[in-house]
Write a structure and sequence with these properties.
The protein is of the alpha+beta class and 128 residues long. It has one domain: Nuclear Transport Factor 2, Chain: A, CATH 3.10.450. It is 28% helix and 52% strand. The protein has a six-stranded mixed sheet.
């Protein structure tokens, strides 16, 4: 196994974000179950907030149907056993039957846990 340098950890966090986005678009709640921490704080771009189980239930019930997620100007910073990822996110999503194309500034925090690296916090702010 390669040494976990800061650069390797930055790449790992970037890969985990890509896996999470793919799982969101595929509504793969089993994959997200592994990627999301039990104590996740998920703040949506409209200011509403969910924990892990509420978020997964919303995905399963198709409250949100993610069609495309792309990240731009993404930066990852490693702080001990945490990785902070930030950048611009463009997505196409259907929310409560309404198709939306949105751009948000986003901030996520990944933490090294016994189960592996998991997302512990997410906040997206929709840009007008």
């Amino acid at each position: 196994m390669p040494e976990l340098t800061e650069q390797n950890l930055e790449l790992l966090i970037t890969e985990l974000e890509a896996l999470r986005h793919r799982a969101m678009c595929e509504a793969d709640s089993a994959a997200l179950e592994q990627l999301l921490a039990p104590d996740l704080l998920y703040i949506h771009s409209d200011g509403t907030c969910d924990g892990k189980q509420a978020y997964l239930q919303g995905l399963r019930s198709q409250k949100w149907r993610y069609q495309r997620i792309e990240c731009h100007a993404q930066a990852v910073r490693i702080e001990g056993d945490c990785g902070v990822v930030s950048g611009l996110m463009q997505m196409n999503v259907v929310i409560a039957g309404q198709a939306l194309a949105m751009t948000s500034r986003a901030l996520g925090v990944w933490a090294k846990r016994r189960e592996g690296w998991q997302l512990i916090a997410w906040q997206a702010t929709r840009l007008v």
